Amino acid sequence: MRTGKALRTTTAVAAAVVVATAGCSTRAPESSGGGGGGEGGSGGEVLTDVGVEGTTITLGVLTDLTGVFAALGQDITNANTLFWQDNQVCDTYTVELDVQDTNYVPQNGVQLYSGMEPNILAMQQTIGSPINTALAPEYESDQIVNFPSAWARTLTEIPGTGVVGATYDVELANGYSYLFEQGLLQDGATVGHIYFEGEYGENGLAGSEAVAEERGLTIIPAQIKSTDQDMTAQITQFAAAGVDAIALTVAPTQTASAAGVAAAQGLNVPIIGSNPVFAPGLLQGPAAQALKDNLYVASPVSAFDAQPELLAQYQEAYPNVQPSLGVLVGYGMSAIMKQVLDAACENGDLTREGVVTAFSELQDVDTGGLVVPIDGFETGVSPSTQSFILRPADVPGGATVVQQAFEGEFAEGLR
């Protein structure tokens, strides 16, 4: 099984900044069992440096609360917070999060990270491929372990960054596999693909192009900016070309526009998208029926029908928020961070270097069905080859699972 090559990850923490004395060593209290172990879990010395003060660990979160992925960012971040309210590192250390809103602007992310960096051990979450890419040099030089709320292939090249699931090209290819298996797409078909400029969209397009090479598809690419709202021109082009399906690597706003315009033009074809394309709020809008009829989402996480206890816990904590499946992403990535930090604590080394070492040794990561199985984090390699397939529905989270986590016919070739 693949394992990481001395990668470094970053963890996000909400609401507090803790200063730690570089190179200090603290004695961990006796552990009550569970996550504790090794020297740290038995009252031995645990080496610490940045982001640990006493028995408090601070993690960073660079999220989007006001930009194009605001709904997703809110749920991922809330779930990060919810997880760490109920969990400790080796039954000893409380985790606090320093949460900052980037508005999905890379420059903002770089500036905000500069302010939090002296006080954090790792990054629990960094949302958006462009922001993760902009911060790659800092994350590497600072030895930061980071879990991105993004799945671009380029992010697997950043030391210490752990993509939580399959990369976009693998994910979208799994979506195509499902369409072929269900008889919804045939060899030689024509597919129109709308995609954001940048790593997210281009990696999704790479998935379409790889499947096209295998199955003789004709891909009509249509690049847009994240600020573009109306997909009429693109869908009109696709309709004129007689496309058999539409692929999307965009945000929910563009998904709703594409589905609604397609329905209005009588273009009743399957729409396949990577996981960020959908939010449950779309089912309250005019494109709701078109989305239910035609949208298929390849996802790194399941749906709330498989996680009823997490749904109840989230609704109790955030009663005024309509939960999306970003809750499962946030909770799952936090569970993986806990595995990393527990291992570092058990090794007696909660320094940044020690966390990087623990991260690099992760393999066969299991989150109890929240996230697809992850083999490990290896540079340039998709951490998983599996995806769930979801369909929009009038249920909490806005989607149900129609295909459990599976590896499609194109996935291994893209890995």
UniProtKB/TrEMBL annotation:
Domain Leucine-binding protein: 56-368
Cleavable signal peptide: 1-22
Region (Disordered): 25-47
UniProt cross-references to Pfam families, sorted A to Z: Peripla_BP_6
Gene3D superfamilies: 3.40.50.2300
Comp. bias intervals (Gly residues): 32-44
PANTHER family recorded: BLR6548 PROTEIN
Family statement drawn from the similarity comment of this UniProt entry: Belongs to the leucine-binding protein family.
Protein name: ABC-type branched-chain amino acid transport system, substrate-binding protein
